[in-house]
Amino acid sequence: MSQRRTFGPVVLVGLLATGAAALAGHQTMLEVPEGELQDLDLVSAAGIDVARAEFPLAGALALVAIACWGVILVARGWLRRAVAALAALAAGGTFAVVVVGGFVQKDDAATDILDQLGRPALAGQLPVSWTPWFWLALVASAVAVAAAVAAVLHAPAWPEMGSRYDAPTTHDAEPSDAPAEQRTSLDLWRSMDEGEDPTDGRAH
After folding, report:
1. Do residues 28 and 131 touch, judged by C-beta distance below 8 A?
2. Cα distance between residue 57 and residue 43, in whole Å
3. From CA 105, how far away is CA 98, in angstroms rounded?
4. Which of 44, 101, 153, 164 has the largest count of CB atoms under 10 Å?
């Protein structure tokens, strides 16, 4: 597959993966099973709600990555590549937050939950498990990183928006001396902006 033809697949995968990471990043990542709470006599009016942990930073970074993909669709040249790099950094940050929060700081989450339940003495006895949202965030953010890196590598060869969407250059902005019937639609619009009536036969 040529680099130019990678545009559609990479952007599609990037948007889907980043969107999934953003959705999962705003959900419960770690939780104490209700059965475990009952066994430890920790079920209370607020017990189920506080026995959960979220990683809001992961969701926020994923939203930044989504915004970057929107810019990648319309940007060109070095700007597109720079925004793709930013998307890779944001997705990488999402992945890092999920990994650190779900593995490195898992015991800290259990301690925080016990503190909220008012039973810090049970430290080390409270089992905390990963939710399906955690695994979705982990996988989706990893795929989002790969897609953003692919965008950085292939962006220079990707198709760009046509020049019709650009602002007129200095050369293009020069008034035309051609008769109205020979001028382009852009010339006619420009003349109307300058107060000229293009239907007036005396013009030019």
Report:
1. yes
2. 28
3. 10
4. 101
The closest alpha carbon to 129, from 28, 32, 1, 61, belongs to 32
d(CA 183, CA 43): 79
The residue among 88, 75, 69 whose CA lies nearest residue 153 is: 88
Q: How far apart are CA 112 and CA 50, in angstroms?
A: 9
Query: Which amino acid type is present at position 192?
Result: M
Q: What is the pLDDT along the chain (204 residues), one digit of tens a residue?
A: 567 788 889 999 999 999 999 999 999 999 877 766 766 666 654 456 667 889 999 999 999 999 999 999 998 889 999 999 999 999 999 999 999 999 999 888 878 877 777 666 666 667 788 999 999 999 999 999 999 999 999 988 888 764 444 445 444 545 555 555 555 666 666 766 676 766 665 544
Contacts for 172-175: CB closer than 8 Å, 24+ residues apart: none
**Domains of the chain in sequence order:** 4-162 (1.20.140), 167-193 (no CATH)
Query: In what helix (H) or strand (E) does residue 192 lie, and over which residues does it extend?
Result: helix 185-193
Q: Which residues pair with 54 in a beta bridge?
A: 28
Q: What angle is formed at CA 161 by the lines to CA 157 and CA 165, rounded to 5 degrees?
A: 150
Taken in order 20, 21, 25, 27, the sign of the CA dihedral is: positive
